[in-house]
């Protein structure tokens, strides 16, 4: 092959990669809500510089676009100063629905917050502009509804590190029940504290599901700047624990998926009935931010001997979501 042709191929490949990168989605701490034949994705940051949260829509998880009515290609579902708590650090949102009301749990000013709307597309606002529990710093909320209708707030509290806590939660008042507060667990596993980035213990980004009477808590460990930031899971018979960390953790890690800093996302069931985990990765091998968004199919396999599900990922099927 002639050198000029080789050069053209290399240039074309570089241009294609650049175009792909420009179309990539840059949500950190992402979450995906599924309703009405559509996926709705939001997260920390994204392809804009506005304080708050914007959202993208998709029907296939691969191609995404702002909903109709977006301004400057951005559709904000929560804005700083629009009847919602927070001036900075808008992180780690979660969308949930109870009857005809949609809720957005999120972090701002290192506080967990709950806003609501009558539409999945917002705007999400608060009647009383306050955090859930302003007595201490707490981040990364995940609200779980149990079979009996009770709600639980899984979140992170600071105490010489980031630790996961749980408390029963009153969705109507937007407040937790402080007498029920309990720490989930400490840093105990080698994968949770690798030497590639020294930090205090960090466990964050919780997601909880209940299957066959067991509670499964998915969480991220290590500092988010650590190349070994990753996701594992623990199992319990109650929402409060005790939690048994699973030996096949982490299930999401650079050694499995090929990209550094893979973690802090959310579990969801796709329109095809497949279980997925949406997460972020480092920008590249030498740079952390802006973090890129990824989606990976999850394998859920029943272990009859242990009496619980074991989880793993379909690494060859990682989805790189892009803007249309």
From TrEMBL:
Could you name the active-site residues?
Answer: 29 (proton acceptor), 204 (proton donor)
A single Gene Ontology MF term assigned here is: hydrolase activity, hydrolyzing O-glycosyl compounds
Q: Where is this site: Important for catalytic activity, responsible for pKa modulation of the active site Glu and correct orientation of both the proton donor and substrate?
A: 140
Show the CDD domains listed in the entry: GH43_HoAraf43-like (cd08991)
Q: Which UniProt keywords apply?
A: Carbohydrate metabolism, Glycosidase, Hydrolase, Polysaccharide degradation, Signal, Xylan degradation
Q: SUPFAM superfamilies, per this entry?
A: Arabinanase/levansucrase/invertase (SSF75005)
Respond yes or no to whether keyword Cell membrane is given for this record.
no
Q: Name one GO biological process term.
A: xylan catabolic process
What start and end residues bound the annotated signal peptide? 1-18
Coiled-coil ranges per the record?
Answer: none
Write down the superkingdom of origin.
Bacteria
Entry keyword Hydrolase:
yes
What family does the entry list? Belongs to the glycosyl hydrolase 43 family.
PANTHER family linked:
ENDO-1,4-BETA-XYLANASE, PUTATIVE (AFU_ORTHOLOGUE AFUA_2G04480)-RELATED
Q: What is this protein called?
A: Family 43 glycosylhydrolase
């Amino acid at each position: 092959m002639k050198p000029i042709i080789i050069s053209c191929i290399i240039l074309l490949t570089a241009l294609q990669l650049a175009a792909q990168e420009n179309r990539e989605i840059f949500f950190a701490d992402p979450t995906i809500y599924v309703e009405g034949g559509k996926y709705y994705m939001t997260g920390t940051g994204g392809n804009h510089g506005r304080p708050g949260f914007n959202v993208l829509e998709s029907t296939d998880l691969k191609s995404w676009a702002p909903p109709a009515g977006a301004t400057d290609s951005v559709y904000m579902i929560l804005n700083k100063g629009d009847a919602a708590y927070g001036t900075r650090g808008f992180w780690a949102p979660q969308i949930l629905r109870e009857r005809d009301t949609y809720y957005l749990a999120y972090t701002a000013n290192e506080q967990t917050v709950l806003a609501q709307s009558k539409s999945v597309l917002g705007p999400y606002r608060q009647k009383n502009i306050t955090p859930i529990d302003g007595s201490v710093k707490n981040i990364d909320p995940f609200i779980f509804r149990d079979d009996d209708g009770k709600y639980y707030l899984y979140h992170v509290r600071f105490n010489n590190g980031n630790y996961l806590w749980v408390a029963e939660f009153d969705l109507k008042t937007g407040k937790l029940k402080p007498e029920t507060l309990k720490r989930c667990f400490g840093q105990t596993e080698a994968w949770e504290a690798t030497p590639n980035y020294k930090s205090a213990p960090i466990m964050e980004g919780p997601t909880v599901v209940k299957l066959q009477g067991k509670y499964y808590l998915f969480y991220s460990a290590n500092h988010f700047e650590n190349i070994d930031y990753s996701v594992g899971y623990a199992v319990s018979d109650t929402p409060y624990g005790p939690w048994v960390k699973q030996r096949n953790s982490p299930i999401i890690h650079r050694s499995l998926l090929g990209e550094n800093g893979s973690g802090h996302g959310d579990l969801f069931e796709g329109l095809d009935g497949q279980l997925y985990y949406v997460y972020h990765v480092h920008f590249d091998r030498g740079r952390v931010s802006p973090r890129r968004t990824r989606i990976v199919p999850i394998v859920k396999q029943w272990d009859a001997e242990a009496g619980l599900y074991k989880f793993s990922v379909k690494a060859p099927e990682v989805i790189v979501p892009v803007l249309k």
